UniProtKB/TrEMBL annotation:
Organism name: Paenibacillus thalictri
Cofactor: [4Fe-4S] cluster
Keyword Protein biosynthesis belongs to the record: no
Molecular function, one GO term: metal ion binding
UniProt domain MTTase N-terminal: residue ranges: 49-167
A cellular component annotation (GO) from this entry: cytosol
Annotated protein name in UniProt: tRNA-2-methylthio-N(6)-dimethylallyladenosine synthase
CDD domains: Radical_SAM
Signal sequence range: none
Chain residues that bind [4Fe-4S] cluster 2: 203, 207, 210
Assembly and binders: Monomer.
Domain TRAM: 422-485
Amino acid sequence: MSTKQSQKDYSIYFQPPSLTDAKKRGKEDIKVHYDFDIPLELKELGKDKFYLIQTYGCQMNEHDTETIMGLLEQMGYQPTGDRHQADIILLNTCAVRENAEDKVFGELGHLKHLKTAKPSLILGVCGCMSQEEAVVNRISRKHPFVDLIFGTHNIHRLPNLIKEALFSKEMVVEVWSKEGDIIENLPKKREGMKAWLNIMYGCDKFCTYCIVPYTRGKERSRRPQDVIAEVRELARQGFKEIMLLGQNVNAYGKDFEDISYRFGDLMEDIRKIDLPRVRFTTSHPRDFDDHLIEVLAKKGNLMDHIHLPVQSGSNEILKKMTRKYTREHYLELVGKIKQAIPNVALTTDIIVGFPGETDEQFEETITLVKEVQYDSAYTFIYSAREGTPAAAMEDNVPYEVKRDRLIRLNDTLNVYSKRNNERLLGQTVEVLVEGESKYNPDILAGRTRTNKLVHFAGSKELIGQFVNIKIVEAPTFYLKGELVGMAVAN
Ligand code: SAH
Ligand code: SF4
Ligand code: F3S
């Protein structure tokens, strides 16, 4: 935790986030707390009041928002979609790329007017951006109308912080640079048929371009019994699908000192729980061991989809990124996975235009894509993040070159997305019906075991059920099918 004390402009709660401190990460014990409760006097604070949360970033953030909603509702707050009705507005932010941050600063500009019109409104910023020193300083200087800033390690403190914000005339800032303990039993507001749950927090990989290890703290796994108890509870509540979350889910358990229990063991135990679909994200190629592949190959409720970010196909770039694997190692892993799970869908993340990336090195990414034949991918232009090692590297690749590489990469990826989809033509696949299609309420939308989106005509009563669908058309980004009958999941 930072030792710096409060500055004049902030309330006494200020413990500034510090990248320097985060980098000095040690082997401190991780404490698990089971005694979370909201003090009685705070449970009335939100009575007859409304909240609105805007969430940016990854599923980890989306899930944090579910926790924040759970906390707010236990305080009596009710949800609203109307900014003018809201008594508290929170921006749950993402710091992974510059454009994610720009959106939030733009939004703060808009919210200023609301705050002027309704001074009692509590305006808060939380999430990954709050963990950055520079962001906290910029907000305090340029957006002083913000009432509350809190980080990713102290979400459980929200009820107390809201109280402070309501009674304080100054900006309440509480951000912990502390490694982060694990707080169990936080309330979560989940909706629909799919549920997210964290199996671990933080990241210790320190890829040179990435801000996440600083904003999310050190890698720490929830105890197996706590994860399994939550999965059982979600099964009991009737959820059809769960998504296990972590920055590197297959590093799960590496931090346990008293037991030898890894991600493969966890999946083996979850496999036996009566819950139709289990997914996970994200897995890191370095920690993907043979035992895990063996367990995933048993299928059942473990889905045939693996998101396996590669970032680059060039060994030189992978080295500069400190990804700690080579192109050859990655391709060998893909080979093993495809052999063990023949119809597996593979997806990935790729960054183009890393500092110093040459045309030849970029071509190696293209040849890797051709070799793996991904089902889909998230692709990004490299964005320098202050305080990361890559931000200090010389970046001599012009933006237009980066943009052209991105276009070329996406074109290549699309060829294989379409080709893989076409392989399914005429086949009958199991689909979980998730709802109406976004664009046509007469069409239903669902997902295959491989996480591909399927559109088909059918009665709304099928929503939440498993059906068999015959694939009749295969565009690039989704599949079209016809209802064959009901399916029995697993
Ligand atoms: N823990 C996950 C990724 C989290 S961030 C993993 O390692 O797979 C999601 C993706 O954002 C990364 O996989 C990477 O492709 C991209 N990303 C991260 N930092 C970035 C940066 N500085 N510029 C561009 N893309 C970045
Ligand atoms: Fe970032 Fe790398 Fe950690 Fe993923 S593994 S969150 S890319 S540092
Ligand atoms: Fe963004 Fe934080 Fe997720 S930086 S990608 S919200 S972990």
